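Box 3.1 A note on notation
Throughout this textbook, protein chains are presented in two layers. The first layer is the amino acid sequence; the second is a token string describing backbone geometry. Keep the layers aligned when reading.
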Amino acid sequence: MVWCVEDDASIRDIELYALRSAGFAVRGFEDGLSFWQALQQEQPDMVILDVMVPGMDGVELLGKMKRDPALSAIPVMMATAKGTEYDKIKSLDLGADDYLVKPFGMMEMVSRVKAVLRRCRPAGSAKLLQAGGLVMNPEEYTVTADGQRIMLTYKEFELLRLFLSHPGIAYTREQLYEQVWKMTYMGDSRTLDMHIRTLRQKLGGYGKLIETVRHVGYRLEVPHGQ
């Protein structure tokens, strides 16, 4: 989960869209106070924090996070305005893991988020999910088939993660909606079937591992010998 703290709604929406398209779960905040309150209930994997946000500015929030033992390990990337050298230096001195200078490109942002997460992750912590030559790294949000990268949407990624985590288990439509969409199943909805179809197509030959269980739902069968 990556949190974006940005008071400009248009910029925040673009950031969230770019990260979501790259496979990240995301959450946005328009001011420092709501972000700080949310931190007391939940902790994200990383924060993109704009320096100039109302309530509490980004530098103040960064300092509070790094002084709190429960929050200090959360990676933080600061977003600073062009020419504000002091903000960059202050942020790095306080423990920021990286910074972006506005205006910045969304591809650059996503790439640097991935780099920070790799750098801050404890060595050997990644647990791969695998079925034959199909490999998922849940922490890096990557999927490869025989070494070739496969680009999935967030829901496709979460469906595949669930199947790979519990191979051989048949999930009902209700269970899949609850666990992936976080909502109650709508009996006449074709959303799930459409996502399964596109996921199978993107997986190529490995798409056949996702089996339809008649009158139940779907499951993933692991190849023999795995």
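Helices lie at 9-21, 32-39, 58-67, 85-94, 106-120, 154-165, 173-181, 191-203. The chain is about 40% helix and 20% strand.
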